[in-house]
Write a structure and sequence with these properties.
The protein is mainly alpha-helical. The chain has one domain (18-167, 176-248). 70% of the residues lie in helices and 0% in strands.
Amino acid sequence: MAAEAVPGVQAAPPAMSEISRLVGVFFEPGKTFADIAQRPRWLVPILIGIVIGAGYLYAFNTHVGWEPYLHRILDNNPRMLQLPPDQRQRIFDMQLRIVPITSYVAAVVFPFLTFLLGAAISAGIIKGLMGVPIKFKQAFAAFAYGSLPRSIYAILSTAVLFATKNPEDFDPQNGFFSNPSVLMDPRTSSKFLYTIAGNLDVFVIWVLLLIAMGLKAAGGKRLAFSGALFSVVLPFAVYVLLRAALVAAGISG
């Protein structure tokens, strides 16, 4: 005699393939992050971000080079302008030797460390302040997949890099026209406000919303989307304000 289905019991949805996840983050984020919360993998999106980010840096390094960019950064630093010319030149030469190497190292290491720290802070806020149990690996996977729009940003910035008429004026940290800082002159504007404007970016907001959706899926019904978004936006806002203060003080570029 055939077994009868038990009323009210639904079979778990089949696991999504990796390709389906990568596409679904953009077109079906709710369904996709529900699958990610149940099966929190993270290696593939991190590898994609590393490869595309390193490719963007390679394009900049070969098509433009770091010299004009470093000149703009150091020449607009008040602390640097107070130094004797020979000392400024030594610092510039050292930066020109180091930055092309450290930029590739950062492209490999920085995403992992960012997701690690961000997931730890957000999971701590959700569990500590909101009392919602959430696993670290779920939060880490939410950060990994939620940050995929950064790869689109890098691809678009690479296209702008090759299309611009004056490549030496290209800013690798602000390669695509997706935030208010493009309307500001970095030489005359307040460095504090310029840094904040640069982080009010369409792609940054997109990433924050996707990560919050991933955390909401991991937290289930006990976690409101507003709470998940708060756990992401609060540490990000603190980071932006601290970085803007350091840039304004001439300590960071």
